[in-house]
Design goal:
The complex is a heterotrimer. By secondary structure, chain A is α+β, with helices and mostly antiparallel strands. Chain A is built from 7 helices and 12 strands. The longest helix of chain A is centred in the N-terminal third of the chain and has 32 residues. By secondary structure, chain C is an all-alpha fold. Classes of the chains: A alpha+beta, B mainly alpha, C mainly alpha. Chains in contact: A-B, A-C, B-C.
Chain lengths: 326, 245, 554
C-alpha cells in the first residue's frame, strides 16, 4: 500500500463526495474572501501611499449601512455553511437500518476488530463494498479515535462507553486507518488499513480463516459461564427479567424512570446493576466490573441483541451475501 | 461596601469623576502627605473604589474556580443520584450543621472587625480578628476529625476505598472524590484566610487601619464571607442530599 | 518619494531621567512596582520561553522531514510537541501582548501613573516565574508527553511523565493571568485621566479590557480543572476515571471552556495593536471605531459559548454538536467586522511604509486565512474529517502565529522607540518582516493540504506519500527561524547603537506619545487632560519630526 503523492484524498465512501462538495464550497468562499481582502489591501496600499510629508488621511465618516452590510453578509454565509454542514453531519450520524454491525476494541496501540461472523483482525479491517457497515467501538484504556480519511469519517473511541460510526464503502481498495486522538508513546504506530473487497472476494476471505464462532455464540457461552442464565430465564419467571426481546425496548425502573435499552444501557446494567433496576425486580445482581474484558462484554451484548432480533434478521450476513451475489 | 457601587462606573465617565471633585494634582510620587494613599492614586476615594472593584473581580474569579468543581458535581449527581444519596448518608449531618453554625459565627465576628475598622476602634479590630481566627480554627479542627473518621472507615478514594452500604456501585467513590475535592478546596481557602488574619493582627494593633483607610480589612471581610457562602452551598450538596430520598 | 524633505537632525540624547535610569542594580528590577519595568521583566522572560519553544518546534520539524520517525524516539517526540505547546501557549502567547505591551502601555494610554495594583502586578510576574520554574523542573526531569491538552485518562492514569509538576506550573501561572486581568480591568475602570471617556479609549485598551474579562472568567476554570487532574493523578481521586463511572470527556469540556476563550486572550490584544498601527500609519481614525470596540467585547463574550466545537467527534450528542457549530459561526461575524473596518481605514489614508505597518497588513492577511479556515472547522460536516489533523494545526498556527505573534512583533516594532528611546535599523526590520511572512506561509500552508489528506496531528512517523508536503513545511520553518533571529539581533543592537528616537518618532496621537521616550518614572509630569477624540490624525497638527525612520534608511 503505497499510494502516490496527491493533493487530495481518495473518495471511497458514499459520504465522501458529500463532505468534499461542502469542503469545496467552503474553500471557494474562503479563497474568494482571502483574495478579495488581500487585493483590496494591496490596491489601497499602493494607491494611498504617502506622497508627501505631513500628509494626512481624508476624513471618512463611519457608516451604519456599511457596517450592517458587512455584518449581515458574513452572517448569511455562516448560516449557509452551518445548515449545509449540519445536513452532512446528520447524514453521517444517522445509521441506516440495514447496517451490519462490526465490533472494534481499541487499546494502546492497536485496533482489534471482530466481524459479525466471528473473524477477528488486528489493525486491519476487511469489509465488503456497497454495504453499510456499523462499528460499535470502545477502548480498553485511553481515548482513541477511529479515522479513515478516504471515508471522511472519524469518531472518538472512549473508555467506559460505546460509540458508533457507520460508513458504506463504494470503491474497492485498501485505505489508511489512523488513530487521531493522541494516545501515548506509539500513537503514530496505531495505524492500520481498511480493505474494501467485492462481496465474493469478501466471502472467500471470510472462509479462508477456517471456522470461527460468531460473537453472539461466544456471548452465549459467556452467558452460561457467568451463570447469567440462572436468573434471567427466557420465559421471565426468573429472579431477573427475561432478556429475550429486551434490546431496543423501553424498560421502566423501580424509580419510575423509563429508559431505552441500547448498547450503553446493557453495558451499564452488567457493570453497575444497581444503576437502573427494572420495575418488579429487586437489586440482587452482583457487579461484573473487572470480571469481563471489553471484548467479552461486546460478545455478551451481541448475544443479548441476537435473542432480541426477530428470527428473519438473526443472521443478516448470509442474507446480504445472497442479495449481493452475482 | 462603599456608598458608590463600583459598578456605577460602568455607566459613569471620568468626566463625572472630575466634576465630583477629585483633585487632579500635578504632584506625584513621594510628594504625597496623605498617609496610606499610594502614590499612583489621586484620592482616597479612587483608591477605595479601586480596591473594592479589584476584590469583587477576585471573587468573580473565585466563583468561576469553584464553579468548575460544582459543575462536575452537578453532572455526576444527575447521572448517579442514588449513589450520591447513599454516599451522602454516611456523612454526619450534625457535625456538618455544627460547622455551618461555627462558620456563620465567624462571619459575624468578621463583620465586628470590619465595623471596628470603620470606626477606628483598633482594639475591636483585633478582638474581631481573634474571634474569627478562633471560629475558623474550630471549623478546621472539626474538619480534621471528620477527615480522619473517613480514613478509618476506608472512605478515602483510592486503593483502600471500601463501601459497605447499599450496592450502588462505583459512583459512590466519585462522590467521595468530590467530597474531598470540594471540602479540601474550601478548607484551603480557610487556611489562607486564617494565615492572612494572623498577619493582620500586628498592623491592626498598631493602628494601621483608620476610618479613612481600611480597605484591606473590608476587602478581606468580603473574602471571608465568600468562603462562608461556598460552605453554605457545600453543606446541603454534600450532607443533606441523602435526607430527602 | 521625497524623503529628503526632512533634515537629519537627531535628538541629542535620551531624556535626563527616565524609568530605566532612576535606579540600577538587580534589586531595583526584582522589587520594582513600576508597570514599565514589570513589562520589561515579562519581555525578557517570554522571549526566553519563545526561544525555547522555538527550539522544540525546530526539533519537531526536523523529525518530520522523513516519514520513518528516525531522528528521535517516539517518547521523545511526544515530549517535544507537548513542551512546544505548553511553553508557547501558557508561557509565551497568553502573556505576550498583555503582560509586555499591555503592562507597559495601558497606564500610559489612559494617562495614569501606574496600574491600580502595582504590587499585584509584580506578584503576577513572580507567579509567572514560579509557574515557569515548575515547568522547567518537569522539563529537566524528562518532560511531559500528554500534549498541551492533557486529555484524561491518558494524562491522569497512563502517562509516565511529569504531569503533576507541569500541572502545578500551569496552575500557578494561571494566577499571573488572573492578576493581570484584574489589574487591567480595575485600571481601565478607575485610573483613566480626566476626559478619557470610554468612547475615547484607544482600541488597544478596549481589546485589553475584553481580554481581561476572559482572563478573569476563564482562567480559574482552567485552574480548577488542572487541580482536579493533579488530584486524580497524585491522590487517585477519580474525578474523570471511567472505571468509577467518571466521564473522561467532562475533562475536555472543562479544559476547552478556558482554552477556547484563551485563543481570544491571544488574538484580541493583537487586534488592539493592529488597530493602533493602522490608524497611525494611515493617518486616519479607525473606520467604525465603535464597531471595532464592540466587536472585541462581542468576541470575548461569544468566545465563552463555543468550546464544544473541539468535541464534535468526542461522543458529544448530535444536538450539542449542532448548537456549538452555529454558535461558533457567530464568532466569525465580529471578527469579519474588524477585518473590514481595518481595510476601510486604509481607504483614502496616507499610508506610510513602515515596519509596524508591514506586520499589521501581514496580520490582516494571515488572520483572514486563519479565520476563514476556522469557519470551515466550525462547519460540523467538514470538521469530522479534518478534526485532529494537520488542517487544525495549520489553522491555529495561522491564528496564533500569523495573528497573535505578528501582532506582538508589530507592536514591539511600533512601541520599541517608546520603550527604549531608540530606533532599530529600517532595512533589517523590513527584511525580517518579509522573511517572516514568506517563511510562515511556506511552513503552514502545506499543512492545510496535509490535513485534508488525512495526516493526523501528533504523529511521530507517517505514511510516505505525505513526505513532500512535510519537507516544504520544514523548509518554511527554517526560513521562519531566520526571520525571528534577525529582530532579536537588531533589537539588542539598537539598545546601544540605535538612533535616539525622540518622544514621538511616528508623529502618532495618543497619550503614550505625549510623554518622553523612554517615559519618566511616573509617566507624565502632569496628569494629562484629554480633550481630543481617539486617532485624531486628520485634525492633528503634524509635529516636525527630527528624523524619518521608515524610508530614509534605504
Amino acid at each position: 500500500m503505497r499510494p502516490e503523492f496527491s493533493l487530495f484524498p481518495e473518495q471511497a465512501s458514499t459520504i465522501a463526495s458529500k463532505v468534499d462538495a461542502l469542503y469545496f464550497f467552503a474553500l471557494g468562499i474562503s479563497a474568494f474572501f482571502s483574495l478579495l481582502i488581500a487585493l483590496v489591501i494591496f490596491a489601497f496600499f499602493i494607491k494611498f501611499r504617502r506622497r508627501r510629508a505631513g500628509e494626512v488621511g481624508a476624513k471618512t465618516h463611519e457608516s451604519m449601512a456599511l457596517e450592517i452590510v458587512w455584518s449581515v453578509i458574513p452572517l448569511i454565509i455562516c448560516m449557509v455553511l452551518f445548515v449545509w454542514g449540519a445536513i452532512v453531519f446528520i447524514d453521517m450520524r444517522t445509521m441506516p437500518d440495514d447496517a451490519t454491525e462490526y465490533y472494534a476494541t481499541a487499546k494502546q496501540w492497536m485496533w482489534k476488530f471482530q466481524h459479525p461472523e466471528g473473524q477477528r483482525e488486528i489493525n486491519s479491517l476487511h469489509i465488503p463494498v456497497g454495504e453499510p457497515i456499523m462499528l460499535t467501538m470502545t477502548s480498553e484504556d485511553v481515548i482513541h479515535s477511529f479515522f479513515v480519511p478516504a471515508f471522511r469519517v472519524k469518531q472518538d473511541v472512549v473508555p467506559g462507553r460505546y460509540t458508533t460510526v457507520w460508513f458504506e464503502a463504494d470503491k474497492v481498495g485498501t485505505y489508511h486507518l489512523f488513530c487521531t486522538e493522541y494516545c501515548g508513546s506509539h500513537h503514530a504506530q496505531m495505524r492500520g488499513s481498511v480493505t474494501v473487497m467485492e462481496p465474493d472476494d469478501y466471502q472467500a476471505w471470510l472462509a479462508g480463516g477456517g471456522p470461527v464462532a460468531a460473537p453472539q455464540e461466544l456471548g452465549e457461552a459467556l452467558f452460561t459461564q457467568h451463570i447469567c442464565n440462572t436468573c434471567h430465564f427466557e420465559d421471565g419467571t426468573g429472579r431477573g427479567p427475561s432478556l429475550v426481546g429486551i434490546f431496543g425496548s423501553e424498560v421502566r425502573g423501580t424509580d419510575g424512570s423509563v429508559r431505552v435499552v441500547d448498547d450503553n444501557y446493557l453495558r451499564e446494567s452488567i457493570l453497575r446493576p444497581s444503576a437502573h433496576v427494572n420495575e418488579g425486580y429487586s437489586q440482587i445482581m452482583p457487579t461484573y466490573q473487572g470480571q469481563l474484558s471489553e471484548v467479552s462484554l461486546l460478545q455478551l451484548i451481541a448475544y443479548i441483541k441476537s435473542i432480541s432480533d426477530s428470527p428473519s434478521e438473526e443472521s443478516p450476513a448470509p442474507a446480504a451475501v445472497a442479495a449481493n451475489g452475482e | 461596601m462603599s456608598n458608590t457601587s463600583p459598578w456605577n462606573d460602568l455607566i459613569g465617565t471620568p468626566d463625572q469623576k472630575h466634576e465630583e471633585g477629585i483633585v487632579v494634582s500635578d504632584s506625584h510620587a513621594e510628594a504625597t502627605h496623605q498617609p496610606g494613599l499610594a502614590h499612583h492614586f489621586e484620592s482616597y476615594e479612587q483608591q477605595k473604589e479601586s480596591s473594592f472593584l479589584g476584590m469583587w473581580l477576585f471573587l468573580v474569579q473565585e466563583v468561576m474556580f469553584f464553579g468548575g468543581i460544582f459543575c462536575c458535581y452537578v453532572i455526576y449527581r444527575s447521572l448517579y443520584g442514588e449513589a450520591f444519596a447513599a454516599a451522602s448518608r454516611e456523612l454526619n449531618v450534625f457535625i456538618g450543621a455544627l460547622n455551618t453554625t461555627v462558620l456563620l459565627f465567624s462571619s459575624f465576628t468578621m463583620v465586628v472587625a470590619v465595623n471596628a475598622a470603620k470606626q477606628g476602634n483598633r482594639k475591636w479590630i483585633v478582638y474581631g480578628l481573634l474571634l474569627t481566627i478562633l471560629f475558623g480554627g474550630i471549623f478546621l479542627g472539626v474538619k480534621y476529625f471528620e477527615y480522619s473518621a473517613k480514613w478509618e472507615h476506608n472512605l478515602v478514594p483510592g486503593p483502600n476505598f471500601e463501601w459497605h452500604g447499599d450496592d450502588v456501585g462505583r459512583p459512590v467513590e466519585i462522590f467521595y472524590c468530590l467530597y474531598f475535592g470540594m471540602t479540601g478546596m474550601h478548607a484551603l481557602h480557610m487556611v489562607v484566610g486564617i494565615g492572612i488574619m494572623l498577619w493582620m493582627l500586628r498592623p491592626a494593633w498598631r493602628g494601621k487601619w483608620t476610618p479613612e483607610n481600611h480597605n484591606f480589612v473590608e476587602g478581606f471581610g468580603l473574602y471571608w464571607h465568600f468562603v462562608d457562602i461556598v460552605w453554605i452551598f457545600l453543606f446541603p450538596f454534600l450532607y443533606l442530599i441523602g435526607l430527602a430520598t | 518619494m521625497s524623503t529628503q524633505e526632512f533634515a537629519f537632525t537627531p535628538y541629542p540624547d535620551l531624556p535626563k531621567s527616565h524609568y530605566l535610569n532612576v535606579a540600577y542594580g538587580l534589586k531595583s528590577w526584582l522589587f520594582t512596582t513600576d508597570h514599565k519595568r514589570i513589562g520589561i521583566l515579562y519581555l525578557l522572560s517570554i522571549t526566553f520561553f519563545f526561544a525555547l519553544g522555538g527550539l522544540y518546534a525546530t526539533a519537531i520539524r526536523l523529525e518530520l522531514l522523513t516519514p520513518a520517525g528516525d531522528m528521535v524516539q517516539p517518547d521523545t517526540y511526544n515530549r517535544l510537541f507537548t513542551m512546544h505547546g505548553i511553553l508557547m501557549v501558557f508561557f509565551f502567547l497568553v502573556p505576550s501582548i498583555p503582560a509586555v505591551l499591555g503592562n507597559f502601555l495601558l497606564p500610559l494610554m489612559i494617562g495614569a501613573k501606574d496600574v491600580a495594583f502595582p504590587r499585584l502586578n509584580l506578584a503576577s510576574w513572580y507567579m509567572y516565574m514560579f509557574g515557569a520554574g515548575f515547568t522547567m523542573y518537569a522539563l529537566f526531569m524528562g518532560g511531559v508527553d500528554t500534549g498541551w491538552t492533557f486529555y484524561t485518562p491518558f494524562s491522569s492514569t497512563y502517562s509516565n511523565s511529569y504531569v503533576a509538576a507541569v500541572a502545578v506550573g500551569i496552575f500557578i501561572n494561571g494566577f499571573s493571568s488572573i492578576f493581570t486581568g484584574i489589574n487591567f480591568m480595575v485600571t481601565i475602570h478607575r485610573m483613566r485621566a480626566p476626559g478619557m471617556t470610554w468612547s475615547r479609549l484607544p482600541l488597544f485598551v478596549w481589546s485589553h479590557y475584553a481580554t481581561s474579562l476572559i482572563m478573569v472568567l476563564g482562567t480559574p476554570v482552567l485552574a480548577i480543572t488542572i487541580v482536579l487532574l493533579a488530584m486524580e493523578r497524585v491522590f487517585k481521586l477519580g474525578f474523570f476515571d471511567p472505571a468509577l463511572g467518571g466521564d473522561p470527556v467532562l475533562f475536555q469540556h472543562l479544559f476547552w471552556f478556558y482554552s477556547h476563550p484563551a485563543v481570544y486572550i491571544m488574538i484580541l490584544p493583537s487586534m488592539g495593536v493592529i488597530s493602533e498601527i493602522i490608524a497611525a500609519f494611515s493617518r486616519k481614525p479607525i473606520f467604525g471605531y465603535k464597531f471595532v470596540a464592540f466587536a472585541s467585547m462581542g468576541i470575548a463574550i461569544l468566545g465563552f459559548l463555543v468550546w464544544g466545537h473541539h468535541l464534535f467527534v468526542s461522543s458529544q450528542s448530535l444536538y450539542a454538536g449542532l448548537i456549538f457549530s452555529i454558535l461558533s459561526m457567530l464568532v466569525a461575524v465580529p471578527s469579519a467586522v474588524k477585518v473590514f473596518n481595518w481595510t476601510a481605514t486604509l481607504y483614502k489614508g496616507s499610508i506610510e511604509y513602515s515596519t509596524p505597518m508591514f506586520y499589521a497588513l501581514g496580520f490582516i492577511g494571515l488572520f483572514t486565512i486563519g479565520g476563514l479556515t476556522g469557519l470551515m472547522l466550525a462547519t460540523i460536516g467538514i470538521d469530522v474529517h479534518v478534526h485532529d489533523t494537520y488542517f487544525v494545526v495549520a489553522h491555529f498556527h495561522y491564528i496564533m502565529v500569523g495573528g497573535a505573534l505578528m501582532g506582538y512583533l508589530g507592536g514591539l516594532h511600533y512601541w520599541w522607540p517608546k520603550i527604549t528611546g531608540r530606533m532599530y535599523p529600517g532595512f533589517w526590520s523590513h527584511l525580517s518582516a518579509l522573511i517572516i511572512f514568506l517563511g510562515f506561509n511556506l511552513t503552514f500552508f502545506p499543512q492545510f493540504v496535509l490535513g485534508y489528506l488525512g495526516m493526523p496531528r501528533r504523529y511521530h512517523s507517517y505514511p510516505e506519500e505525505f513526505q513532500i508536503l512535510h519537507i516544504l513545511s520544514t523548509a518554511g520553518a527554517s526560513i521562519l527561524a531566520v526571520g525571528y533571529i534577525i529582530p532579536l539581533v537588531y533589537f539588542i543592537w539598537s539598545l546601544k547603537y540605535g538612533e535616539v528616537a525622540g518622544d514621538n518618532p511616528w508623529d502618532a496621537v495618543g497619550l503614550e506619545w505625549q510623554t518622553t521616550s523612554p517615559p519618566s518614572l511616573h509617566n507624565f509630569d502632569e496628569i494629562p487632560v484629554v480633550d481630543f477624540e481617539p486617532y485624531d490624525y486628520v485634525e492633528h497638527e503634524p509635529v516636525e519630526r527630527p528624523y524619518r525612520y521608515s524610508r530614509s534608511e534605504a
